[in-house]
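Q: Could you fold this chain for me?
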Amino acid sequence: MIIDERNSRNEHVINAAKHIMTAARTAPKGKGIDIIEIILITGNDIKILSEKMIAMVQDHGMKFFLRDAENILNAEAIVVIGTKDQPQGLNCGYCGFAKCVDRTKDVPCAINVTDVGIAIGSACSTAMDMKVDTRVMFSVGLAVKEMGWLGSCSQIFAIPLSASSKNPFFDRKPKTPENKNDQK
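A: Sure. Below is the predicted structure, expressed as structure tokens.
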């Protein structure tokens, strides 16, 4: 049997994504409490997500969402990692409040934010070990949040994955409505 790498690339990326999701799941969590949520986005859902990001520019004006929306179309899969908002009762003060009960709803628990950061680091380390290209994108995470794809998670980040000759998620030129067609 002869297998052309180009014909097995997508399968490799999907398998790598599953390992990446496991790495995020098994990453250490504050007080050992797991409030991380993880999903994998593939196929046409990537296009739907890209379209949502383009529509979001009208609401908030962050034009780099246009670049990122086009950029994720080069991904074969996107791992999304988020955390629910659940104060851990440590009264650590990292959120700016002396006690967890004093924290307002609009301020995230610092332990939760740290947990998602550690999960992302573990996921990206695994992606590197699996030889797939990545980039952590909060813009994509925000779109996932607005679409409700990760339930009640408050801090969401996305990691698009690719296995190509050059990482498509770096050396990116900004996209704006005026010059979108001028840049390749």
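A (continued): The beta strands are 36-41, 77-83, 133-134, 155-162.
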